[in-house]
Specification:
This protein is mostly helical and 206 residues long. The chain is 82% helix and 0% strand. The two termini are 27 Å apart.
């Protein structure tokens, strides 16, 4: 599976790096579903802190939430494989977490009187929901849609890098730039996926 602007080697290396932790948690009887839900809750809390103007605390909470989001799949593998309930929870919680991030960013823009951040966040919010929708619908029709520069992993990485620039170096302009980039890249990914699916379906129906 493509990771967009995030190099595949980096993404796979990160997963491999948390493998021992996932196996340890699985050995302790901690379920993948519990970690999934915990990651979603942390993402919502982090987004609330972002909206409240506390970028450093938001960054720390969101980093933990992101680790949990990666851990759940590894824990499921270590426990003998995932379940349909686990897949459903993972997909649903991902949408909640994605929505929370951009709502938090939009609220931050509104609270700080920054219309550019507000509107970029809203565009990113909508496009980030359209990207996985197109993929899910395509797969239900028997074709794939794993194309484009901004799948979910790439969006999370870009968001956190921008937030880190604000939280650690007081460079909020880079956070705004990151959200703008996400709005653009997610929109491009949506369009590319629609075109990609359309071509595949046209070929199948000839």
């Amino acid at each position: 599976m493509s990771h967009g602007v995030v190099p595949d080697r980096v993404a796979e290396g990160a997963r491999a790096g948390i493998g021992p932790l996932a196996r340890a948690l699985a050995g302790m009887g901690i379920s993948a579903n519990a970690v999934t839900i915990a990651g979603g809750v942390l993402s919502v809390i982090g987004a609330g802190l972002l909206a409240a103007g506390m970028p450093l605390l938001a960054l720390l909470i969101l980093l933990i939430g992101t680790i949990a989001d990666t851990l759940d799949g590894q824990i499921a593998k270590a426990s003998g494989g995932g379940t349909r309930l686990g897949a459903f929870l993972d997909s649903t919680v991902d949408r909640v977490a994605d929505g929370a991030l951009f709502v938090g960013a939009a609220a931050s823009g509104a609270n700080r009187g920054q219309p550019l951040l507000l509107w970029a966040s809203l565009v990113a919010l909508v496009s980030s929901f359209l990207v996985p929708y197109v993929r899910a619908k395509a797969e239900s029709l028997g074709v794939n849609a794993s194309v484009g520069p901004a799948p979910r992993e790439a969006r999370i990485v870009i968001f956190l890098i921008g937030l880190a620039a604000w939280a650690l170096f007081d460079l909020q302009v880079l956070f705004v730039a990151a959200v703008l980039a996400l709005a653009f890249l997610s929109s491009i990914t949506f369009v590319l996926r629609v075109v990609h699916v359309g071509r595949q379906l046209s070929i199948k129906e000839r």
